[in-house]
Amino acid sequence: MSVVDKDALAPATPAPSPAPAAAISPARRLLLDSRWRWWELLFWVACAASFWVFPKKLMLISEIFILGLLALSIDLVLGFAGLVTLGQGAFFGIGAYAAGLMAKAGMGVAPLSDPLLGLAVAGLAAGAVGFATSFLVLRGSDLTRLMVTLGVALIFEEMVIKFKDITGGSDGLQGVMSSPVLGVWSFDLFGRTAFWYSLILTFLIFLFCRRLVNSNYGLSLLAIKGNPLRARTIGMPVNARLVSIYTIAAAIAGISGGMLTQTTQFVSPDMAAFHRSADALLILIFGGSGFLYGGLVGAVAFRVMQDFLGNITPQYWLFYVGLVLVLLVLFVRGGIIGMLMAASEKLTSRRNDQTGGRP
Amino acid sequence: MSASASPVLETKSLVKAFGGIIATDNVTFSLPPGARHALIGPNGAGKTTFVNLLSGVLPATSGQVILNGQDVTNWTVRDRSRAGLARTFQINQLYPDLSPIKSVLIAINERENAAQSWFRKLGARSDLVDEAAELLKRLNLGGVMHDRVGSMPYGLQRLLEIAIALASKPKVLLLDEPAAGVPEGERDQILDVVAALPESVSLILIEHDMDLVFRFAKTISVLVNGALFVEGTRDEIARDPRVRKVYLGEEEIAHG
Amino acid sequence: MLTILFDGVAYGMLLFILAVGLCVTLGLMNFVNLAHGAFAMAGGYLTVVMMNRMGISFWWCLPAAFLFSAALGAILERTLYRRLYDKTHLDQVLFSIGLIFMSMAAVDYAMGASQQIVNLPSYLSGRVEIFGAQVGVYRLFVIAVCGVLAVGLQFIIARTRFGSQLRASVDDGRVARGLGIDVTRIFSLTFAVGSGLAGLGGALGASILSMDPFFPLKYMIYFLIVIAVGGATTITGPFFASLLLGIADVGGKYFVPAIGGFIIYTIMVAVLIFRPEGLFTRRTRR
Known about the structure:
heterotrimer; A: 359 residues; mainly alpha; 69% helix; disordered N terminus; B: 256 residues; alpha/beta; six-stranded mixed sheet; four-stranded antiparallel sheet; 10 strands
């Protein structure tokens, strides 16, 4: 089932340092599994610091956060509940259009154009559609799920083009102005507000997800991913759990779509296109699924690579994406984070060997 | 087999057909509380199919399954589990990437309706974790409770199958060849665990190993070609010449 | 009206030739090769190069396209695909999407992004009247060629020793192996032939389907619909599914252009939900 052969003992963290087993109670040990690690803090500090390090790339960086958030929403269903999906882009698109329509309806003035209200509506709209379509992915094999989610995404893509009156057809929605965030900070040309807006919201949603996967609920998702038959036989309402996590992930994808609308101030049908789903899945696989950080790390790597390779040969960027995908599937399990963790494990085991060798 | 107390688990004319093949042929059966019952039969007699019908993994073609007086024939696996029916699988059905303590905790969480809680951290309900740890210790799994299940020795994985089933505090426990594939030296450990189960759990054991069956079971049913061939106490079955012929005879030949 | 029917049938037959290899390999190895369209594109572009740049006759292009794509399929199967048989469907999907991307960029690099035009021999262009309807000669030609191929394939599968081994392997690979059938070899052969047929389909369709670098991605969804509706256990299922899809697609675009694509995706999702094994499959045991 799983893409990633990882140590699921610690979904969001590397293997805990060996502690004397008798010294701490089992409950304490489980609690310790979800404590904050130094590298997590480092990661978020680095994200914030990029504001001063790359002052000219703020728009790009906020887009990375947003893409990372979309990939994180896929991680919830794929990396933790084991549900494959190619349709997350549809929820992203629904959120993007919902936020865009809200902002337009308010003509850039609060309360209707308030960005946080817009995100709430985006999340609710995407969550509602996610809930309604979640029942389609309960049955069948991985392959059926991939096809059903792909089909739903394509249907949505068609609808965007067809309902021109609402969506603006292939022109999209132009001039989507939100009122200032919390009535104070308006979105500026340099992307300063956009940067903090997307960073802080991404971080808050990340905290929510981190809590979610480290709870008893999150454990039950891992059980479904690990063995759905066993999960049913011990009395777990597997379908209800899957519906709930699929809905939550759809809402998060919707919020990320809404954020992209608000920070870029327009909506294009491209935001709802199928390739969004593929890109986001790809980003997650790049980063490594099942670690919670895979989406964000993957988004950074993806965009940096795009910037670098895209500048050399913009036309053939797709070739490298394909190549990386093929190589990842063939040789690297667990993406970037998987590689880092394997390397750090090797380091610690070597260190242990050395200390263990002494009398 | 008539029982004085009302049965905890019954089947009435239970049939399962796969296309033209009848895998379970009109089985009427009842299990009294506290039973130590073994279900035996030659290979392909339909033992595992019968367990799958009881636990709801497969839908019955016709007939009824009754659990604690309630008709559960159309109930899902999950609902039967919540009504007190637990099972193990002949082929391990575990969570290979999780640890034993988490595997057991998952079942306890479901029993206690604690798995909906998404805000409290794993381990915050220390009472549930302690229960899981106690259960694992009782089954000699205390030392490996934080290991990765997929990397544990096979014998320990078989024990964990039983631990997970017990975690939901079942009234009826179906053990589908608990010692299948376990090396000779480790079988006793599994048998000890099974023997130590409290009276409050009614047991059905499916086994191939006659030693195990005769040490454990008080009553025995023999299944042949999907139908109940004969039922009785351990001694009756041991003496029955027909059983020797269809089953024990075959075993003797098979084992030389 | 009849013209549309003919167009739809021709289109459907073409889809069948394009997709049949994918269906069989999926049924055989439970392997999802979304990059199947890339082999069709290879055949199509080979035809373009041979005809337009080298001036070779159309008749030589068809077998050449078959052989080229079959060889390509055989090589990739040996070197890459083989490593993925025991991986998850998601890995297979990601891998084949990677291949699609690479093939798209490669074609873009070699031939440019614009659509390629194939100039058919004059005796294949033009129209004839059948039952009072104007029908393209080339459409009839496509129907004839694909029809012969479909009958031939059905014959091979139903009547030959290879066919019976293939059917046994699709039914239950483990049992077939137990009976001494070399499933891996059958798979390699089927994969190559399937890729070759896709290449032939690409060559035949080069003037009907638009031949551009986006081809594999664009037709991927059509192949998936054929599988969803037709199932992957027979070739008659995919055949009728392709016909239906071809007629529905051509008809839909003609009569209700506003919602054309919409209907097809909806049908796919509906079929997947109510009959996850496909509409035209026999209900199997279990």
